[in-house]
Each structure stands twice: as C-alpha cells, then as structure tokens.
Design brief:
16% strand, 8-stranded parallel β-sheet, alpha/beta, 4-stranded antiparallel β-sheet, TIM Barrel
Length: 344
C-alpha cells in the first residue's frame, strides 16, 4: 500500500488525526506529539508474560511487526511486571527506533509502591526501564488518577522525567475530565498527548466527555478493550457453554468477563454478524473499524493470544463504515450500550 496522507491534523483548535498508510496498517498522529502510531496497537494486559504461552506470545509480536503494527502498550502491573520483562526480551534485538513503546504506573507493585507521587514516578519508571531493557519510554501513562497525591506534584515529576530524556511524552488512562483540564491548563509543565479509555461499540462513555474535551486539548485516544474482551467477536453465543481456550474460560484472563454471560447482549452481538458478512469483514474487524471511525482515536489496542488474531485484527485498518452501517449497529445494540464515565 502506498503512503497517503489524509488532511486532518490540528485545525481550528480541534485535535484530529493525521492518517498515513504504511504497509498494511495505517498510522495516525498521536495528539499534539510528533509521534505517528499504528492505528492498531499490540497490548499485553492479561496476555504476555502471564496468560499466553511464551512461544505464542513471541509469534504475536513477530506477526505484529510483519504487518506494520509498531505501537506496543504495556504497564508495570501487567502480570506483576512480567509483561514488561517479556517485551524487554523479545524487543531487545530490534532497533529502538523501529517501535513506539508505551507503559504505565499507578497500581500497587510487589515493592509496595503505588500511586503517582514524585517518588513513585521516579521509582516505577526506573524499574520499568530496567524490565523493558531500554533507556527511554515513548509514552508514559498514569494508569488512573491518584486522589491521594496533589496533581501539581504528579505533573512536576512527569515533567522532570521528560526533561531528563527518560520519557518522550506523557498520557493518562481513565481520568475524570475536570482533572484532565486542570493538568492541561498548568503552566511550566509537560502536557498530556494521550488518553487511554475503555471504548467499544458497547461501552461509549468517553463520547460524553473525555473525547470532546480531548479534541480541544491536543489529546488523542488510545482505546483499550475495543472488542469488549472478545464479546464483540461473536465467539460467545447465547445459551451455549463458554468455548474452551477462550479468555472467558481462562483462570488468568477470565476475571473481567461478566458481559460474556449477558444473554441479551450476546443475542444482539450475533445479530451483527450479517452486517459484518455483507461488508466482507470478520466480527472483530467490524468492531475495530467502528472504534476507528472516531477521528480522535489514534489507535485501538488489541490483546491477541494467537498470531492469526493479530493479522485478522490488523485488517480493520483503513476500513470505513457508512452512516447506514453505523445506524444499523446502533439499532441492533439498543440499550445494551453502556455510558459509564472514567474509572478513576
């Protein structure tokens, strides 16, 4: 696929996305940064370093690079640090400028540290750098808002690590809008370029406040759970036993799968199958294309456990859904759509 720029970028104070086609996966500008990220990114929550066997995990990473996914998202807390260890090992032989690496801090770690205090920013960043075997993080994200630490302390600490060269840009996940605005309004500190909310066809809370605010503030979305933990792939059928080998039946990965037991939702998801079939898409591709229809989304994080899933998911890049298709999706899902606010 040849390189093609679609004009959008930042205009009239609205943060939009510059989209470029490279290989099979398009790239989008990340907020007000100079980073261009693959619009499908590879995540590691509940998978690498823990729930997925080493050989398969390595194959997923290799497949991602093969098809043009170069944006890797992790966190210090994933698999108690082992996700970062795995990525540090598997990425060690690749040129550092061949991928964009994002990680996070906030949740309690084995050393007892948690939160976003100055001490924790420095301590957890250095630990992540060691595990990831790198001298810098491209995107360092606050995994939740820390109500026990003054916002000024957090932003000043993040600014220090950027100016030390250990971090290129900063972001957050699941922050309330008033705190996002306060952080972006602070003088003399680095500002956020990304937000990482849960966002999917059936979880649309960010549309109410986080996305509109982000458009104004130079922030793009990197969305997690765009497939609703696999529910939107159609693999969980109403009235049927949960398929063996799926996330819902895994001891290590299945503890966030309550919606796989929602009979009404599962029936409605099955009604999306003809929509996908008519477009020549898999169910996963339809769900990812739905997320990517939003101009403020820079990338959708996938949590693949097999290389074939990586390849299938990546094929959603560049798919454009018509207004008629979007209306059909809304009609089918009805009140199964949830509109919860940020988790912090």
């Amino acid at each position: 696929m040849s390189e093609q720029t679609i004009p959008s970028a930042f205009s009239c104070g609205m943060a939009r996305t510059l989209t470029v086609s490279v290989g099979s996966v398009r790239r989008r500008q990340l907020g007000s940064s100079d980073l261009q990220v693959s619009e499908i990114s590879l995540g590691s929550w509940l998978t690498y370093g823990g729930g997925v066997e080493r050989d398969r995990a390595e194959a997923c990473v290799a497949k991602a690079f093969e098809i043009g996914i170069d944006f890797i998202d992790t966190a210090n807390v994933y698999s108690r640090g082992q996700a970062e260890v795995f990525l540090g090992e598997v990425l060690a032989d690749r040129p550092r400028d061949s991928y964009i690496l994002a990680t996070k801090l906030f949740w309690p770690m084995a050393d007892g540290g948690h939160g976003l205090s100055r001490e924790q920013v420095f301590t957890q960043l250095d630990a992540s750098l060691r595990r990831l075997r790198t001298d810098h993080i491209d995107l360092y994200q606050c995994h939740r808002y820390d109500w026990n630490t003054p916002l000024e302390e957090t932003m000043e600490a993040l600014t220090e690590v950027v100016r030390q060269g250990k971090v290129r840009y900063i972001g957050f996940s699941e922050w309330p809008v008033d705190k996002i605005r306060q952080a972006q309004a602070m003088a003399g500190v680095e500002h956020f370029v990304s937000s990482q909310p849960q966002y999917s066809m059936i979880w649309r809370g960010p549309e109410r406040d986080v996305i509109p605010a982000s458009r104004e503030l130079g922030i793009s979305q990197i969305v997690w759970s765009p497939l609703a933990q696999g529910v939107l792939t159609g693999k969980y059928e109403p009235g049927e036993a949960l398929p063996e080998g799926t996330r819902a039946t895994s001891n290590s990965m299945g503890r966030f799968m309550e919606r796989a037991l929602d009979h009404t939702l599962l029936e409605r998801v099955q009604q999306l199958r003809p929509v996908a079939d008519e477009l020549g898409l898999s169910m996963a591709q339809l769900a990812l294309a739905w997320v990517l229809r939003e101009p403020n989304v820079a990338s959708a994080i996938i949590g693949a456990s097999r290389p074939e899933q990586v390849e299938d998911n990546a094929a959603a890049s560049g798919v454009e859904l018509s207004e008629e298709t979007l209306a059909r999706i809304d009609e089918i899902l009805g009140d199964s759509v949830e509109w919860e606010g940020p988790a912090s």
